[in-house]
Every structure is written in C-alpha cells, then in structure tokens.
Amino acid sequence: MRAHANAIRERLHVDTTGWRGLTEPVHALPVVQEAVARDRKLAFQYRKPDGELSERTVEPLGLVAKGSAWYLVANTSEGFRTFRVSRIDKASVLDLSSPRPPGFDLAAHWKLSTDQLRESRKRYKVTLRVEPRAAERFLFWGYAPVRGVPNRGGGGWVTRDVDFDDEDQACFVVLGLGPRAEVLAPAGLRARVAKDLAEVIRRARPTRTRVRRTGPS
Fold this sequence. Notes:
This protein is α+β, with helices and mostly antiparallel strands. 34% of the residues lie in helices and 35% in strands. The protein has two domains: 2-120, SH3 type barrels, CATH 2.30.30; 124-204, 2-Layer Sandwich (Alpha-Beta Plaits), CATH 3.30.70. It has helices at residues 2-11, 29-38, 106-120, 132-141, 167-177, 187-204; strands at residues 12-15, 40-47, 53-66, 69-76, 79-84, 88-97, 124-130, 144-150, 158-164, 181-185. The strands form two sheets. Strands 1, 2, 3, 4, 5 and 6 form a six-stranded mixed sheet that branches. α5 (167-177) packs across α6.
C-alpha cells in the first residue's frame, strides 16, 4: 500500500491555489490518466491557443489538478512540457514504456514552472483601497497582492497593490466589488471605472413613459 501511495503521489498533484478560469471539457482525461498510471507513451493532437493543431507523442510524468483545469506534465524531445488537458484530442495510449527520470518531483516541477510563468507575464499593477473581506477575496481568487497596509481612520479598510493581467481585467474586478473597493492608482483605471459606473447608473434609471390623456372631444 505504501508503494502504491508513493506511485500516486509521484503522478498526481493538486494545486489548491486559485486559478482564474471556468470549467473546461476534459474528455481526453481518462486516456491521459491511463497513460500516466501505466507509464506508457501517449499520442494525441494538441490544439494551441490560436487554434493550430499539432501531433504529439510524449512520455507522461504526471497530472496536475488546478481549480477546474487539468494539466499533463510530460517529457518530450524538447524537454519537460505542460499540456492543458482540455486542448488534447484523439489521445491514445501506446504500447511503449515511458521511463521516469530519476528523482523527478512533480510538485516541485509544477511550482517552478508556474513561478517562471508568473514572472514572465507582463502585469498591470493597481493600488486599491478595499473593505477587509474584499481584500481576502483577492487571495482566494489567486491575484497577487504585493502589500497591504491599514488605512488610518478607514474603518478597517486596507490598501492593496494587486497585479492584474491587463486594464480590462482590473476594471471588471473592481466593478464587481462595487462599493467595497476604490481605485487609488493608476489614474487611467480610476477614470475608466468612474465612466463605466456613470453608464451603469444611466441605464439603471427608470425610463419615463408619456401618458396620453384622452377626454371628450
């Protein structure tokens, strides 16, 4: 049983930190799981983000579950690669053994690769003044607060420097928080939020209908 538990731990990692995204179709997951469990090579079609398809044959090393998404970590001719299971199609397990590199640690590899991905991304930094419960949601959602300090006389509200992917994402989140958040910087985002809020208020106003009076002619 200990050996079986070790084998599972080597091949499956659950990342409990937030990962923004929706539920994805993972019809290829059973086939991928079989290849991982049996240490067999896996052949499949892989759809890139731009829609381009490519044929792949890899040596599966493990599966990572992050939020609602599944990822396959595999060894390829170009080194270790990570594949999103929702983009895998026409997968088949080959009758060829898939050797595991000595000392390979799935959890450590995943952490290293995700850290490198975060560092490589351009970030849109925003300074917000937020209600305490709203500040906690940033951690749950997986946003990266750089710092947080209490506001004097702010009733427990805090200042948060938060990294977003872009201005669109920042605006969407801030508007969703409603009166529980205020943009302090950058000025461009603050102006955009104010403009969008004004439009929301305009649309929410009840429309006046003219009542035509009728009387004796």
